[in-house]
Amino acid sequence: MPRIFALFAMVIAAVSLAAIPPAKADSRYGKQKVVYHVNYDSGGDAKTYIKALKNIQNHINAVGKDNIEVRVVLHGDGVEMLRDAVKDLKLQGEVSNLKSQKVAFNVCANTLTGRKIDPDKDLFEVFKEDIVPSGVAELSYLQGQGFTYIKP
User: Fold this and answer.
1) CATH code of the domain covering residue 91
2) Which residues are paired to 150 by β-bridges?
3) Per-run averaged pLDDT (10 residues), the chain, 152 residues
4) 40: left (phi over 0), alpha (psi -120 to 50) or beta
5) Which string of DSSP letters, residue by residue, matches 30-63?
6) Which domain holds residue 37?
7) Which residue of 41, 49, 93, 144 lies most exposed, with the fewest beta carbons within 10 A?
8) Is the distance from CB of 20 to CB of 134 less than 8 angstroms?
């Protein structure tokens, strides 16, 4: 019986959280272009990556999905986010949710080559168009194009 109560409580909590509307997009922010830089390993705890992805979602909610262009540049240890997502359904869901809002995940070719990572086999939903020649050069390029740099 306690298990049924616990399950019922979890369902009620989930429904309650889903009923809370996201913050309304505020016109004060205008149009934005932003690049999020991820080059750290989660230490085996996907929660670290999920927190970063939640920051991105909160940013989109505040500005409005039609008012923001978001890139996530992953290089070095940051590529582990998409490697971990292969086996972590929650992380997959967070990445897929952001991708459905036109968030681009750019992966460093130098990291893939140096670490012998096959994006087709080792990473979650990375396609040819997602791979950039250099993660750090991409960050600099995007900042030159007017993207604001954020390190979550």
Assistant:
1) 3.40.1260.10
2) 36
3) 39 40 65 97 86 97 96 97 95 97 98 97 97 98 98 94
4) beta
5) -SEEEEEEE----TT-THHHHHHHHHHHHHHHHH
6) 2-150
7) 144
8) no
